[in-house]
Amino acid sequence: MSTSLKGRALAIIAGCAFAAGGLTILLGKDLIHPVDWVSTQWITILTVFGTIAAGHLLADAARARHVFAMIGFLVLFVSGTCLVVCQSLGRQAETCEPGTLSAEATNKAIADKTTDLSSAKARRDYADKAGDREMTGQRCGPRCREWRQNSKDISVVIRQLEGEISALGPQKPVNAKAERLADMAALFGIDKLKTRAMFTLLEPLLWTLFFEIGSIVSLGFAFRQGKAKVLVAANDCRSVAESNQSVAFQLPDDPEPPKGKRSPEIGKGVIELHKHRVWKAIEGNGGSVSSHRELATLLGIDEGAATRLRQEIEPHLQMTKVGKHLRIALRA
Q1: Domain ranges, residue 304
Q2: Second label for 10, Cα 20 to 30 Å away, from 29, 179, 182, 240?
């Protein structure tokens, strides 16, 4: 397999992977259950592939300099991208926000109960100290017993709060990636809160653009056009070979006729010879070219195709080796 074919195959695989990633963001688990798809899922898929196709056609229209088509495909691409991004943002919000809200609620509950626990411990300590002050020698009177009972009641509340905090577990990170990025930004003097908020808002957008642009670029590279120069040269060779087939048969191989006379066949062959592309190119260049590359340039084709065309009338050309170049001139 040639390098070009390997590159195209890899680009197709990458484009399919990017497209699948974008659809996974938009459809979630529904992507692997096509039987259950409804009109909303089908419209989403068609929008994604329509946007990708509009991106490819926009590039083709730009190369062809078709202004109206280019404007139309640009409008389709921009509107499709906006629709896909908005839907992707909504989908990611539905998927991520419940977990975020759950983590925030858990952390808030832990913080509130920790505050209540600290307050309860402070009240118990105060009750213990008040009970000690109300003691008369070694005897605990009525007021002392009240404070002792108050301390016991508060101890029950403390054990209950400690059990609830233990059941909730440690605090959960709301957005670990945003937190870590904000910590790194703070090292360079960037505001931590703004960095965290900006990353939280932009992350869904970046995921969507990554997969959409990746699929457009990959598939565009996979289905790129071949070199126009080679295609033109091949077409020119076929057309010239067909149009000059009669010349090969009409050019006579008979000995040169006597001077002063010209046979009708030779006259006809000379007329057809002057219509040949190589003959016309050299004749228009003053009757000779300094190199084979110059001949190819005059013909507007590659050197291989120019060689094949030159060989069709080679008996009527005078070729001289000049250094590394082949000088080609018309025979008188």
Answers
A1: 229-330
A2: 29
